[in-house]
Amino acid sequence: MSLGFTIVKRLAHMVFVMFGISVLVFLIFFATPGADPAARIAGRNASPQTVALIRKEFGLDKPLPVQYLRMMDRLVIRRDLTSYVNLGEKVVPTIFRAAPVTLSLVFGAAVIWIVFSILVGVLAAAFKDRTLDRLLMILSLIGISIPVFWLGEVVNLVSQGLLHNTWLFSWVPPLGYVPLHRDPALWFKSLVLPWFTLALAFIGIYGRVLRANIVEAMQEDYIRLARAKGLPEAQVLIRHALRCSMIAIFTLFGLDFGALVGGGALLTEVVFGLPGVGYLTYQALTNLDLPMIMATVTYASFFVVSANAMVDILYSVFDPRVRND
Amino acid sequence: MNMLTGATGRVLLEARSVSKRFNVGSRIVPALRKTVHAVDGVSLQVVRGETLGIVGESGCGKSTLGRCLVRLHEVSEGEIIFEGRDITRLSRRALRPIRRKIQMVFQDPAASLNPRHRVRDVVAEPLIIHEFGTHSEIDARVVELLRVVGLSADHLERFPHEFSGGQRQRIGIARAIALEPDLVIADEPVSALDVSVQAQVVNLFQDLQERLGLTYIFIAHDLSVIRQVANRVAVMYLGSVVETGLTEAVFDHPAHPYTQALISAVPVPDPDRAHRGRRILLKGDVPNPAAPPSGCRFHPRCSYAQATCRDVRPALTRIGPHREVACHFPLV
Amino acid sequence: MTEATATDPAVPLLAVDNLRVSFRTARGTVRAVDGVSFRLGHREILGIVGESGSGKSVSLMAMMGLINDPNAVIEGSIKFQGRELIGLGAREMRRLRGGRIAMIFQDPMTALTPVYTVGRQIVEQLRLHTDLSTGAARNRAVELLEAVGIPGPKDVIDRYPHQLSGGMRQRVVIAMALSCNPALMLADEPTTALDVTVQAAILDLVRKLRKDFGSSVILVTHNMGVVAEIADKVAVMYAGRIVEHADTPTMFRTPWHPYTWGLLDSIPPISGARPRRLSSIQGAPPSLQRLPPGCSFAPRCQYRSRRCAVKPPMIGEPDHRVACVLEPGERREIVRKPAQQNDEIPS
User: Fold this and answer.
1) Which of A54, B287, B327, C98 is most exposed by smallest CB count within 10 Å?
2) DSSP label at C309?
3) Which residues of C sit within 8 Å Cβ distance of A?
4) What is the ipTM of this complex?
């Protein structure tokens, strides 16, 4: 069976999972016994009229399946779900405004952490048990151990404060996000530091995992055959060992990427003042803004699941063995 | 080894049209589901005291069959009769007393022994599970068992990795015979061993049979080993038995073209009699068991195949005393 | 490359002299190969027989320059077409490897890189050692697959390893080995992981390829039957040493070393009378860390005597050599008697 079929199958699977997640999220918010969803949507100190209005608007006197469909209709099809906490704010467009920020942040960081972790993993494996290997492994351990919010604050302190007026950091724009289409150069400059901050821990983790995978792959029979062919060691390492080790990295990448786009980059966004989805979720949670939470959770699940689906599809491009045949 | 078999002996275990299917592919979309008949309608009898050899190449279903017989796999169809009793659908609990009468020895002694258990624990485990006796009775039994398989009490406190492959297989055998089973099913028990050690373990199997009156089902791909240990052989191809008979008869005058090709392929350690050139080379590979050929499963590779073989699947038919073959045009 | 000696028939294709490979370990030095010497002529097939730990595979890896364990010490001489391989630069060795000297391995299921098509893997090697363009290399790969008896090579070339059976994969590995017309092919247990019918086909193939490609072959195996089928000469290895070396008919008609006797007797016959019991060699192959002084086989040998306390030198005739102290008369005496049964089961 072809690659195309694998992809279709994976997409169908993804739709199925997303349906399940949306039902689950809906049930948590609307069918929890002993809690009135209308009162929760209305927010704190809402008037009884508002609550009654909400009850009617969301059809809360109707059976649960109808409520679910109505909710999905407003969330996905009509996209006019409004927040009652932030009076009248339409939640879906808000998320659509926040998403590019998060995507910019996470995409850039992902490119950085993949490139650098390959570098770290390959070099460490090539110099296994020698000084360079040990050094890289210690550095990646340090990278993993540094909390991202602390690192972000330090980066800000240095680049915005202490050394901002030196040649080293004078190019750093003030905190915040500049859309790509408005000024690409500024977009890039404003994101470089957040990218590296977010990527650091992942470089550490991925570098270590990749090293371990390559070292293991180097024991395989096919590596012996590659050497027996007369391939130079560097080619054996990169074309054969690294290529096969990347498969494991992809699984990890799918999970991490999806989680970050779905709001996991919250801390980085907050520290660098980037109004992304994570930031939005954070605000919605502090305000107990139920429609907003509902929307961000659905958005997050969409990204986690679709990132996983993407990775599975990539997986079958990279590893012919998982294709159905 | 003087015991001739067949209708005269008492049947210990019988498989009646046993099939084992594995589903592969999609679990949701039926059109994408494929069924692999790993074992396809196998009927066999094992008579008390004999050694039945099951031989065939990888993927022929011999190991799956062995596992079905001890119910490590649940069979999809057919019955397994042990001592006249249908054990195919017995509950776990009801099966327990039967489990102690049927034991298995596996190919890789290193993988089938828990590396953290000392030899004492490995051998004692079945005795403890089946409540053989008091602590000291079990200890004494373990020492006795080790002696029987050619090890000594000095080995009790050691770990499996401290032993050579042959010794580990001896430990596996000691464990298998601990409860004085009636039937031992050995799945490729010597194929992971060095040649010189293989012979020792084959001898051990034969000695134990004589001393303890064991019945064996000996599963192997090595035809020479099967010929040495078995009274009777069943040759399997793509999930089915294609030929059964007394060992000498089958090896000297194979009735099925597959058996003939298999035997002719064995390299002979004698350059004067080596097959250089006059061996029957089979065409192609073993077909995919998920899409077996029509008619006789062997026909695409058979040099004797005729039109009938493509369409009609031959049944296992009696062609002589103790002799059955599934072929439209048997060679004897 | 100037290879004036390459075609000189007086120079053997391969001359191995006193090859020793040892590994430094935490528990002292382990000598895996201990003074192996032999010559291999053009178009000759040498079978090396031995059990685990006999040093047969390590010897092959040394010839291939593939021992890259920093704790390994390789001594002695390996002359390929008159050229010393031990101490040869990495670049030079790489040029030979996969080019003039090719190797095939035991387990075809794991020998090919799983993520590339077989065609790509063959082309990779061709491009490395020849000037062929990618397109020409691909055509050559199709020819090679056809030469090793793969049906539908044009189709198979774009398959991934996991889509092929074990026998087919081993043919692909062989095709790869042959791709640059090697003068020497090293085969490490090439049929052990295969079914007998497939093994027969692969052995036939090796025989045919010697004819078509003119390569010499060293085939390492534990199977005496395989050697009898295919080899011109046989070397029996035990604990890192060659203990007996002869041409194939001689080795099987009049074996001299007790270990060879044991090996031959442990194989259950496939025809003729069935022995009631197999005669077996007692004990197990020794650990290389705890080799006995003198003859390594002595502890397992039925015919050991005080003479065995000294390392036995290679003696005998030019084309049949043995490392055993038994006198020709003693050997004849022992062989005349039926093989003794050594019963180690107390009854």
Assistant:
1) B287
2) G
3) 64, 66, 94-99, 102-103, 105, 107, 110-116, 124-125, 128-129, 160, 162-163, 173, 176
4) 0.84
